[in-house]
Structures are given as C-alpha cells and as structure tokens.
Specification:
Shape: globular
Radius of gyration: 25 Å
Distance between the termini: 15 Å
C-alpha cells in the first residue's frame, strides 16, 4: 500500500481546525484514497488545543534551532481508526494525524493570526516556516514514518519544499516525490529575505550560507525582489503542481489584470507555464461529501436563522432579552421576528382550513415538515466568506435600472428582486472582512428585502442550501468552490461567475446559469442582466414551471464524488 504524507494548515476532521475548502480536502480525500490502495497520514500544527482535544498520544520531543534560538517541539499522534470524521460522517477513518506542539503555534485557539497591517503575514509566516522545519526534522529523525510521496498544501507548507531542496540536513527528503497543491494562488505569504524577525534569513540563520549557495532565484518573489515567496518555493521546487479544478489550472497560466477583474497567475504565471510545459501541472476538481441521510423535515430557515442569531449572543431560545443582542444583528433579527410573527398569525388564521400541514403545498414559511421550497416567497441565497475574492463584484457601482442613479451591484440585485418578486428576499450568510460586513450592514438597513447574517453557522448554511430557490456565487476567481456543489445537491440551481471551479461544476442552462464580463463593471452588469432574465421568467411562468423544475432536477443529480477524484489523484499525482 502506497503511503502519502499530507502537510497542511487545516483539517476539517477536527473541531476548530477548519477555515476554508482545504480543510474539507484534508478530511475527506484520505478516506477516498483507501479504495485506491493509498494510505494518507497528515501533519499539522496543534494550535495549542488539538492534541489535548483529540487525546493525542505523545510520540516524541526534539529540539531544533529556529530564529536564532533552540526550540523544543512535541509530536503527538491521533489515531482516528474508530472515529467519525466531520459532522454527519459515519465512515471509518484510518488516517493518522501528527500534531506539532509549540507555543509559536498558539494563537488563542485560532489557526490564522489577524496580524499587523503594516507587517502582513508576519506572525503566520513565522509560524508556518517553523512548522515546515518541524516536519522536515521529524521525517529525518523518523518520528514520522517515511512516506512514498510528500504532498504539500498551499503556501503554509511551501517552505518545506525549500528545506528539502536547499539544506543538506534534509537532503534525504529529495528522493521523496513531492506534490504541491494550490488551493488559492491569491494568498502567497510573502516576507522579506532579511531585516525583520519574520524573514527567511532570520528564521534559518543557521542554514543561511547553504541557502545562499543554492541561489535564491527560485524562491524570490518575481515582483518584490527583496521578498521570499513560499508559494513560489512550493511551485518551483516540487515535482508536480496540482490545482483544484481543470479551469483554474488553465487560468493560472495567464497574467492577472485586477483592474479588469481578472485574477489568474498572480505574478507566478511564468513558473506555472514552465511547469506546464514540462507536463508537471494538473487540474483535478475537488470532491464533495454528500449526506444522503439528510433531514426530510428540516427546520424552516427563519426559525433556524433566529436560533443562530441568538446563539451568537450566547442566548438560549427561551432566555431571550433582545436589548442585549449585538447591534450588528439587530436589523436581521427584527426582520426575522416579523416574518415569524406574520407566519404564526397566518397559521392561526388558516388553521381550520388545513387538514394536513405536512402535505400542504401552500404552507407558510415557518411550518415544519413541508416541502422545502413550498413557500411562495422567492428566496435568493448566498453563503461564503466576506472577502474581495468572493464579493468584489457585488461592491462595484453600476447604473440602476430602477432609479437611473449609480448603485452597487448588490443594491441593483435587491432592486431587481423587488421588481420581479415583491415579497422575495435575499438572505446572505457570511463573515470575514470587517469593512465589507459594515458596507453590507448599511445596505441591509436601506433594503427591507435583504437579510444579512454576519457570521457562519453550518446548520443554517445547510438549511439555506435546502430551502433557497436560487443560489448566487459571484466570486471574482474560484479555484474550486464547494458552496455551489452543496446547493446543487439540494436541488437549488446556481447563478455563478464563469470562472475556475464554478465553470467546471455548473452547466449553463442545464444545472444553473453563468455570467461573465471583460472587466468588473461588465461583470456586475452581466450578473444583473442574467438575474433579471431569470426572475422575469419566474414571474411569468413561476419557479414551479417545468423548465425551472428541470434545471433544479438536473442540479440535484450532479455528484462530484471523492472516490472518482481519488482515482485521478493516483493516476496523475502519485504514480511516477
């Protein structure tokens, strides 16, 4: 059986160890690879809590030099042979996870540091450079069994490729085939070569001469000549480079043009072109976990949203004092309460006319056990991180079709929804950039058909996937994406920007719809045109029409299963 060691910052198998899609891959892919006779183990930091939380077995401790001082590191092993992995997952997981424990990895239980805007990535870059050194040392000392393939994920593990290639102490790792997966090329972890506590030669002062002898042309950032780029180190110094969708693997070969809304190679396109010419670049779409035992009578989204808002305040459902609800949630909670009141009042008025609430196709929003999209209120949904990658298009300004004034694309969406579906709502669940959340809060205060839920809650997200009528994913770039897969699995078609994994997973006019555009303004205008056409069709034919139902049915039939992905990994990445 082939042994693979994955080195990553995140892992959705453990509570508190997930931020983005990489965590889903590290959680789900190892199980799928077992069917291909490949056993995966994972190395990651403990972050000050994972070893204790997961009852890890302490294997060893060792010392190493980093940033001019001797550091003592402990290694724990979590053997998950009999443990369920992730919410709703009952498959046996045979993955061993090696957790590295040291104070440098501890940031109050957080994976990533907020850091100082004047020194971007400083804390995290030091943390993950140290992590790469720890893994290299543990492999050489055989605390971690030597694998057949070393698989590094994103910039966090890129420095391990540098150590393997440049430092004599780790030269034995050169014979290990090394695969490098890029989940998001837009985040590269740049730091100075020297002159800062978070810099390449401060971290590895004891290896400085060896690294300089090798030359730095392969790891210096192409744009910032005094900066080390761990993402570039991973790309150039690995044997194979993997992107998480076929379309994204093509896009990164092109230069970026942010002014046109084009985010492609991000300065590393020449390195990727060279790898591609040598047959070393592979685009393999991520898989998705499908819970076929889903709740057939899910909680209505308004009830789930109310429970979520109150839980964010630390308030139980029966201990509500609304004056203590944080101000950023007040608008959303007030609108949710109005919907609940209206629904309950309608329930009371019409109770005598109902003989079977469960089967009634005209049941109200708050009635449990009904068809998930039986309510007549059109529900536009969106779930995702609040970053420029995800919502930059929504923040652009265009000419309003309603007022002939300049508005943001998000406001134009709400105006379009109001014209076609007067009772319709746009419900957005997301957290991230504070400035973006404040902008969206202000818009929510002006538009009654916009409910902005500033946070993340998996049960609420799943409810919105199940009960929405149309899912919006307007990412400026999307390496793979999972939200669109989860929405489609519930029969909710998607309107997406035709880029990366979105283009690879959503078929235009079959399982959902695309929009595009040559620049940011055009992308915003195309989004509104597409939404206008779709809502006009709904208004005239109803989203219960045969055409709409056919797209919903097609979307629900789509499956992006991990076992199929695992086959491609073995054929393209692990077989030499």
């Amino acid at each position: 059986m082939k042994q693979v060691l994955m080195v990553a910052a995140e892992n959705g198998a453990f509570k508190g160890a997930k931020v983005g899609g990489m965590a889903d891959v590290i959680r789900d892919l190892p199980q799928a690879l077992l069917s291909q006779d490949v056993r995966v183990h994972v190395a990651m930091p403990s972050y000050g809590f994972l070893a204790a939380q997961e009852h890890g077995e302490k294997l060893n401790a060792f010392s190493l030099e980093f940033a001019g001082g001797q550091q003592q590191v402990s290694v724990y092993r979590v053997n998950a042979a009999s443990k369920e992995v992730g919410e709703g997952r009952s498959k046996v997981n045979q993955t061993k996870t090696y957790l590295f424990d040291h104070p440098l990895f501890n940031d109050g239980g957080q994976i990533y540091s907020h850091g100082d805007a004047s020194r971007p990535f400083a804390a995290d870059a030091s943390k993950f450079a140290f992590f790469s050194l720890c893994v290299a040392k543990a492999l050489v000392l055989e605390i971690i069994p030597r694998p057949d393939v070393l698989h590094l994920h994103d910039w966090h593990a890129g420095t391990l490729a540098l150590l393997r290639h440049y430092v004599n102490e780790f030269s034995s790792l050169k014979s290990l085939p090394c695969v490098y997966s890029i989940h998001n090329l837009g985040i590269q972890g740049l730091r100075p070569l020297s002159g800062d506590q978070s810099s390449l030669f401060h971290w590895f002062s004891h290896y400085g001469d060896e690294i300089k002898q090798q030359g730095l042309s392969e790891v210096i950032d192409p744009t910032h000549s005094q900066c080390y780029n761990p993402m570039r180190a991973g790309i150039v110094l690995s044997d194979k480079v993997h992107l998480v969708s076929p379309s994204y693997a093509k896009e990164v070969l092109l230069p970026s043009a942010p002014e046109k809304g084009s985010y492609c190679g991000e300065g590393l396109e020449q390195d990727l072109q060279l790898k591609q010419q040598n047959g070393q670049v592979f685009g393999i779409l991520n898989g998705c976990f499908y819970d076929e035992n889903q709740d057939l009578a899910p909680t209505p989204w308004v009830e789930q949203a109310e429970a979520t808002l109150l839980s964010w305040q630390g308030l139980g459902q029966h201990q509500v004092d609304h004056q203590y609800v944080r101000s950023v949630d007040q608008i959303a909670l007030q609108r949710i309460n109005r919907l609940l009141f209206s629904s309950h009042h309608s329930d009371s008025t019409n109770q005598t006319n109902r003989t079977n609430r469960t089967n009634s196709t005209n049941d109200t929003i708050s009635t449990k056990g009904t068809d998930k999209r039986a309510d007549s209120r059109f529900l536009l949904t969106s779930v995702g991180r609040l970053t420029d990658q995800k919502v930059l298009i929504l923040r652009q300004t265009i000419l309003s079709q309603t007022t002939d004034k300049t508005v943001t694309v998000l406001e134009a969406i709400l105006q379009c929804l109001k014209r076609h579906q007067p009772n319709g709502l746009f419900v957005m669940l997301g957290s991230g950039d504070v400035k973006i959340s404040q902008e969206f809060q202000m818009i929510a205060s002006r538009y009654a058909n916009f409910i902005f839920l500033n946070g993340y809650d998996e049960p609420l997200a799943n409810t919105l996937y199940r009960q929405g009528h149309l899912f919006l994913m307007p990412s400026s770039f999307e390496p793979c994406g999972i939200s669109q897969m989860l929405a489609m699995a519930q029969g909710q078609p998607c309107l997406v920007h035709s880029v990366g994994g979105l283009k690879d997973t959503v078929q235009h006019g079959v399982t959902g719809w695309h929009f595009s555009g040559d620049d940011l303004k055009a992308q915003g205008e195309q989004l509104i045109m597409a939404l206008d056409t779709l809502l006009d069709s709904c208004q005239q034919e109803g989203y219960g029409s045969q055409a709409w139902k056919r797209v919903c049915a097609n979307a629900k039939e789509q499956r992006f299963d991990w076992p199929k992905v695992a086959e491609q990994y073995c054929q393209s990445l692990y077989n030499q």
